[in-house]
Structure formats: C-alpha cells, structure tokens
Specification:
This protein is mostly helical. It contains 13 helices and two strands.
Length: about 300
C-alpha cells in the first residue's frame, strides 16, 4: 500500500515590514549610501579633470588609483606631478578616514603627500614649460613651491624673477637653489614692506586732507599735502628714468676696450640687458599713457591750455 503524499504549507518567502520593522530604515540607509557614493564619484571625476589626471580604466576605485600612484613613484618631475594629481584624486575618492591608511600602504608621509599635491596644483598647467625642465627632479620641485604664481609666470616669460634666473636653476645645487629662493623671499618681503609703508603714507595724506577740508574753506591750503605728494611722485618718476639712463651708460662703459675674444659673449649679454631695458620702458609707457588718458578726462579738464 503506497504512502499518501504529504501536503506541506508553502508560505510566501517575501519579507514584510510587519516581520522586520526596521526594513524601511535599512532601505533608506542603503539609498543614502548610494547617493554618497555617486556624489563621491562625481567629485573625484571633477578633481581629476581639473588636475588633468587620467583615471585608471576611467574608474574612481581607490584601489586602482592607489596602484597607479605606486607605479608613478619615480623621481622625474612629470612623474612627481602625476603622483600629486593621483593623491589629490585619491583623497576625494576615499571615504572619510581612509586616505591616511592608503598613504601608509604607499609608504608616503602625510607631509610629503601634501607637497606632492601642492606641486600638482601649482604646476598642473605647466607640465611642459622650461621651468619644469630646468627644475629636473622632485627635490628641486618641492623647493620651488615657495614661489607664487606671478613669480613662476615671470620665470616662464622673461627667464628671471628677482635675482633667480631660469638658466641657472638646472645647474644649481639644492643648497644654492634654497639660498636663491630664500633671498628672493627676502626681497619680496622688503618690497611688501615698502608698499605697506607707501599705502600708510597715502592713508595719512587722505586723513590730513579730509581734516583740512573739514576745518577750513581755504581750498588751496587744504590741498597742499596732496599737491606735495604729486610733486614727490613726479620726482620719483624722474629718478627712475635717470636710473635707467645710468644703467645704459654703465653697460656701454663696461664694453670699452674689451679684447676681441670677449666681444661675442659681451654682445650676447648686452642683448639680454636690452630686452630687460625695453620691457621696463614699455611698462612705464603703458602706465603713463593710461594715467594720461585718465588725467585728460578728469583733472585735465580743470587745467588751462
């Protein structure tokens, strides 16, 4: 006699909110994680595009970016910039607290990582310029981070900023480069101090003028401080032109009676000085022409023919 078939209840396998009260919260958390991941992906891609970093396999996976950084950790300048770009992108791709752990895996000190990233940010648009060619290696690249964008641009356009010459950088030792940059920073600080003092003088002059205007109605007397400042500025312009002329005369005096074998290098140096002289004149002419146009439309309308 055969057995009777066993009938087994087959309840639905679906999980309901009644059985798992926390299901809506879990779904919401999953949605938030998805949104955060999408936002992190978008931010990472934006940073990569800004720095010119090629994402490995067009992917924002931190593991792939980390391996790409490791592959670029050699000492050429372009590789250093690529490491910096990769670190900056990796930082965006990592969840909070993970970046430092990945630096440990890469065996990169956090301070060094910051310098890599600073270099990538500062030089990302200058990857093939003479400045980076002259720098040549990672150590010098990090030293050059003290320069501001205007100084770097001046090096690119004129071959010199302050006393630091582009042609000398490649042949400088690290100690010589540091000394040159230190002197450049000192010169910049001194110039800033002069500008601050000049601005303070102008502020004091404005205060004096306003006080006189408020206290008296004798306008010529009230504007005497301003007139004196204008006259002083004119004397400074004359002094600057005189200094340029002195430089020109000194240059040609140095070339008198030079031996014949020294003439070619001297003339090459004269050409460089001439370019700097012409640039100084052009800048002065532009500024004076601009001020002349403004004067003619404003204060010049009150002066006699």
């Amino acid at each position: 006699m055969g057995r009777k078939p066993t009938v087994t209840d087959n309840p639905s396998s679906a999980v309901t909110e009644t059985e798992v009260p926390s299901l809506p919260a879990m779904a919401e958390a999953a949605n938030q994680l998805t949104a955060l991941a999408a936002q992190r992906d978008a931010t990472t891609r934006a940073v990569a595009a800004t720095l010119g970093y090629q994402l490995p396999a067009d992917c924002t996976d931190p593991d792939l970016i980390q391996r790409d950084i490791a592959a670029n950790m050699r000492r050429s300048v372009e590789a250093c910039l690529e490491v910096g770009r990769g670190l900056r992108v990796l930082k965006e791709a990592c969840e909070h607290g993970q970046f430092m752990a990945r630096l440990d895996v890469l065996n990169i000190d956090a301070r060094v990582a910051r310098r890599f990233m600073q270099a990538a940010t500062k030089f990302s648009k200058r990857a093939s310029t003479p400045v980076l060619t002259a720098v040549g290696n990672q150590t010098k690249l990090f030293e050059m981070l003290v320069l501001d964008d205007e100084q770097i641009e001046e090096l690119e356009l004129t071959g010199q900023t302050g006393e630091l010459k582009l042609d000398d950088i490649a042949d400088m030792s690290l100690r010589e480069l540091r000394a040159g940059l230190r002197e450049l920073r000192a010169d910049a600080a001194a110039k800033d101090a002069v500008l601050d003092a000049t601005q303070q003088k102008l502020t004091d002059l404005q205060v004096q003028t306003h006080k006189k205007i408020a206290a008296v109605t004798d306008w010529p007397d009230a504007l005497i401080p301003l007139t004196e400042q204008i006259a002083a500025a004119g004397r400074k312009l004359a002094t600057a032109i005189s200094e340029l002329e002195t430089c020109r005369l000194t240059l040609f005096e140095a070339g008198v009676d030079l031996p014949g074998e020294q003439r070619p290098p001297f003339e090459a140096a004269v050409n460089h000085v001439g370019e700097a002289y012409e640039a100084a004149l052009a800048q002065a002419e532009r500024l004076i022409e601009k001020e002349r146009r403004t004067f003619d439309k404003t204060l010049g309308m009150f002066t006699g023919e």
